[in-house]
């Protein structure tokens, strides 16, 4: 019978996994609907891809569970898909608009005119679904075979693992900066808030999965790279969500004016 802290850690781990599985879907769909990927900063996606690649190498080198390695592969594939969308839609637009100096968004953001109350209800329902899915995943894993349950890094002290962990943390942090800068120019057009909303939820639950397992200083120190990558990016993602809220809801309450084309 697993200890309560181990069970709680595993539940948070499964909830985090459930959140990260769907985190890319809203932005991929947003890009498809707009036939444009210009809401995303290329540097944001590329640096995020490098971070996920380091995370993948760390999972393989650390001998983590196959589930964790498969998920790291999934994250990397989604990053490549987002990058592919950006360049494909640019190529497609350049074919039809040979005189454009810069690819433009071809439509309006899907959630731009969604009332705030409805958006909150939608996101709350999604959170409950993700949490329920995570708990169900934990329960199935616990019933079938205990050792197949996902778990956070166990604190490998080898310097290669630590370097990969801290490198991915720095990359995850650095990836947000060009996106925040781009949002000031694009007013967050073409950017799905769900991408960052579920990234925040996934990072918080992942950090909780580590902390609830053990608060032993040595354990926390050896997992510090993964903790830093999860916790610190939450603050930057909150900034991005604040930008989206400001440009889509705060500015919508102000008198309308023509925005100069860029």
TrEMBL record:
Protein location: Membrane
GO cellular component: lytic vacuole membrane
Molecular function via GO: basic amino acid transmembrane transporter activity
Gene3D superfamilies: 1.20.1280.290
Membrane topology of this protein: Multi-pass membrane protein
Alphabetized SMART domains for the sequence: CTNS
Family annotation (Pfam families): PQ-loop (PF04193)
Source organism, top-level taxon: Eukaryota
Substrates-to-products reaction catalysed: L-histidine(out) + L-arginine(in) = L-histidine(in) + L-arginine(out)
Sorted UniProt keywords: Membrane, Transmembrane, Transmembrane helix
Segments traversing the membrane: 12-29, 41-62, 68-89, 120-139, 159-178, 190-209, 224-247
GO biological-process terms attached to the record: vacuolar transmembrane transport
Family: Belongs to the laat-1 family.
UniProt protein name: Vacuolar amino acid transporter YPQ1
Species assigned in the record: Hypsizygus marmoreus (White beech mushroom)
């Amino acid at each position: 019978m697993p200890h309560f802290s181990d069970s709680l850690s595993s539940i948070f781990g499964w909830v985090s996994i459930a959140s990260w599985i769907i985190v890319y879907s809203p932005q991929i769909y947003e890009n498809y609907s707009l036939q444009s990927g210009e809401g995303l900063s290329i540097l944001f996606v590329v640096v995020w891809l490098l971070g996920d690649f380091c995370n993948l190498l760390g999972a393989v080198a650390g001998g983590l569970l196959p589930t964790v390695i498969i998920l790291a592969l999934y994250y990397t594939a989604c990053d490549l898909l987002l990058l592919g969308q950006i360049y494909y839609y640019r190529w497609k637009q350049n074919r039809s608009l040979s005189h454009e100096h810069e690819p433009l968004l071809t439509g309006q953001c899907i959630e731009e005119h969604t009332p705030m109350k409805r958006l909150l209800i939608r996101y709350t329902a999604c959170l409950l679904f993700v949490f329920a899915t995570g708990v169900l995943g934990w329960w199935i894993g616990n019933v079938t075979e205990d050792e197949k349950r996902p778990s956070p890094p166990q604190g490998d002290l080898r310097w290669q693992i630590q370097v990969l962990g801290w490198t991915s943390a720095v990359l995850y942090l650095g990836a947000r900066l060009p996106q925040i800068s781009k949002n000031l120019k694009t007013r967050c057009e073409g950017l799905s808030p769900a991408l960052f909303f579920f990234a925040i939820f996934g990072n918080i639950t992942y950090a909780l999965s580590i902390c609830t397992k053990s608060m032993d200083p040595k354990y926390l120190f050896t997992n510090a790279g993964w903790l830093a990558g999860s916790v610190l990016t939450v603050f930057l993602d909150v900034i991005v969500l604040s930008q989206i809220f400001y440009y889509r809801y705060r500015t919508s309450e102000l008198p309308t004016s023509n925005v100069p084309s860029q």
